[in-house]
UniProtKB/TrEMBL annotation:
Gene from which the chain derives: map
EC assignment: 3.4.11.18
A single Gene Ontology CC term: cytosol
Residue numbers binding substrate: H83, H182
Single GO biological process annotation from the record: proteolysis
Obligatory cofactor(s): Co(2+); Zn(2+); Mn(2+); Fe(2+)
Source species, domain of life: Bacteria
One Pfam family hit: Peptidase_M24
Keyword Metal-binding annotated: yes
Positions of the Peptidase M24 domain: 13-246
Listed name of the protein: Methionine aminopeptidase
Note describing how the cofactor binds: Binds 2 divalent metal cations per subunit. Has a high-affinity and a low affinity metal-binding site. The true nature of the physiological cofactor is under debate. The enzyme is active with cobalt, zinc, manganese or divalent iron ions. Most likely, methionine aminopeptidases function as mononuclear Fe(2+)-metalloproteases under physiological conditions, and the catalytically relevant metal-binding site has been assigned to the histidine-containing high-affinity site.
């Protein structure tokens, strides 16, 4: 289903997006050496509840996961990149942590992810990987607007990732979002310009470039959810929810 939101719904999406960004900013500030991933999940649940919002994750049970996710934020560390299920693990100096969060407020969802390094150490490659996903995300957003096609966004994202020398996995990518978290159209992280669905004002998209340092193959943890690089290499992931407007694209998941 491809959903075009009303002006009132896009206004509500702005509030949802700001909430997602504010929670992620708070979690980043609390992600210190020694912080337990389960504490990050607990704090997320508290902030969602205090805002009068609801989690898009806790009861989420798609075909690619094993039962309901059961947690409120995805926490992916080092070689984990997607759907990281929080567990009893304390962050160490130099860990590359990705936090991915989606919530629904007043009937509209927003989704965002950030990657950063915990503590003072900066292991080789970590900053380059993070900055590459951020540049790819910016390129995808710059390509978005009324009349553009999904392939234009995918091509813009993929061009940045390929130029930086990273393999690109095509199994998971961006997606439509609106009154529910995951909708059509799918936005692959590489593609051909000029192809695919034509964007219209009122369409919301979650764009999410993610990379693994030396492979495009994923393996699934025993928890049935956490996806890791097949070689154990480092990973990074950046995501924003955007709204297509009459003038271009508006980033919704910026802090208030």
């Amino acid at each position: 289903m491809i959903e075009i939101l009303t002006t009132a719904q896009v206004d509500r999406a702005r509030r949802t997006g700001a909430l997602v960004a504010d929670i992620l900013r708070s979690l980043r500030e609390r992600s210190l050496v020694g912080t337990n991933l389960l504490d990050l999940d607990r704090w997320t649940a508290e902030m969602i509840r205090e805002a009068g919002a609801e989690s898009c994750y806790v009861d989420y049970a798609p075909s690619f996961g094993r039962g309901p996710f059961g947690h409120y934020v995805c926490t992916a560390v080092n070689d984990a990149v997607l759907h990281g299920r929080p567990r009893d693990q304390r962050l160490a100096d130099g860990d590359l942590l990705t936090l991915d969060l989606a919530v629904r407020l007043d009937g509209v969802a927003a989704d965002s992810a950030i990657s950063f390094v915990v503590g003072e150490s900066r292991p080789p490659g970590t900053i380059d990987m993070i900055e590459t996903t951020e540049r790819a995300l910016a390129a995808g957003i710059a390509a978005a607007g009324p009349g553009a096609r999904i392939g234009d966004l995918s091509h813009a994202i993929g061009s940045v990732l390929r130029a930086a020398g990273y393999p690109i996995n095509m199994q998971f990518g961006g997606h439509g979002i609106g009154t529910t978290m995951h909708q059509d159209p799918h936005v692959a992280n590489d593609g051909r310009a000029g192809r695919g669905y034509q964007l219209r004002p009122g369409l919301l998209l979650a764009l999410e470039p993610w990379i693994m340092a030396d492979t495009d193959e994923l393996v699934t943890d025993d928890d049935g959810w956490t996806l890791r690089s097949a070689t154990g290499c480092l990973t990074a992931h950046s995501e924003h929810t955007i709204a297509i407007t009459d003038d271009g694209a508006e980033i919704l998941t910026l802090p208030s």
